[in-house]
């Protein structure tokens, strides 16, 4: 996954036209930077959409899981009554009812583990979203800092040039 490391600015065509002293090479570099910023924004938007779709899928699965757990709970209460002799067990013998009860407990534990996994995935998505927002804020601050430096720029070797 490509991380958006370029900082974004709100450069426009006015920026190019208002500075006639910019050389052709500088104009080309500015256009290239704006193109990369646009691509970065699109990438960020796509990642947000992926996270949104995944979050919606997790939410649906959690809702289905909750329904299944409720149904198991109702069945479990009924089965426990039959085991205690409070309800009519019909033709079921005690061994069969105990077997069903243990299977019910195993199924319930399995659903609880699955629920835990889904909650971890949801938390992971929240953290990814938070990270993306922080990265965006950082890019904005870097863009502001870059504009406030004015004509001073850094060379690739880390030396400051006028």
UniProtKB/TrEMBL annotation:
<dbReference type="InterPro" id="IPR050540">
    <property type="entry name" value="F-actin_Monoox_Mical"/>
</dbReference>
<dbReference type="InterPro" id="IPR022735">
    <property type="entry name" value="bMERB_dom"/>
</dbReference>
<feature type="region of interest" description="Disordered">
    <location>
        <begin position="141"/>
        <end position="162"/>
    </location>
</feature>
<feature type="domain" description="BMERB">
    <location>
        <begin position="45"/>
        <end position="162"/>
    </location>
</feature>
<protein>
    <submittedName>
        <fullName>MICLK protein</fullName>
    </submittedName>
</protein>
<feature type="compositionally biased region" description="Basic residues">
    <location>
        <begin position="22"/>
        <end position="35"/>
    </location>
</feature>
<feature type="compositionally biased region" description="Polar residues">
    <location>
        <begin position="1"/>
        <end position="11"/>
    </location>
</feature>
<feature type="compositionally biased region" description="Polar residues">
    <location>
        <begin position="151"/>
        <end position="162"/>
    </location>
</feature>
<dbReference type="Pfam" id="PF12130">
    <property type="entry name" value="bMERB_dom"/>
</dbReference>
<feature type="region of interest" description="Disordered">
    <location>
        <begin position="1"/>
        <end position="39"/>
    </location>
</feature>
């Amino acid at each position: 996954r490509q991380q958006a490391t370029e900082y974004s600015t709100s450069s426009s065509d006015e920026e190019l036209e208002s500075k006639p002293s910019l050389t052709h090479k500088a104009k080309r570099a500015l256009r290239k930077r704006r193109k990369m910023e646009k691509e970065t924004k699109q990438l960020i938007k796509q990642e947000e959409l992926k996270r949104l779709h995944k979050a919606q899928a997790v939410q649906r699965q959690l809702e289905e899981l909750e329904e299944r757990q409720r149904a198991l709970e109702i069945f479990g209460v009924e089965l426990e009554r039959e085991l205690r002799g409070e309800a009519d067990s019909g033709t079921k013998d005690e061994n069969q009812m105990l077997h069903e009860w243990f299977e019910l407990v195993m199924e319930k534990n399995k659903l609880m583990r699955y629920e835990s996994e889904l909650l971890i995935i949801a938390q992971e998505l929240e953290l990814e979203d938070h990270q993306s927002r922080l990265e965006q804020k950082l890019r904005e601050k870097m863009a502001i800092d870059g504009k406030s430096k004015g004509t001073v720029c850094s060379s690739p070797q880390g030396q400051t040039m006028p």
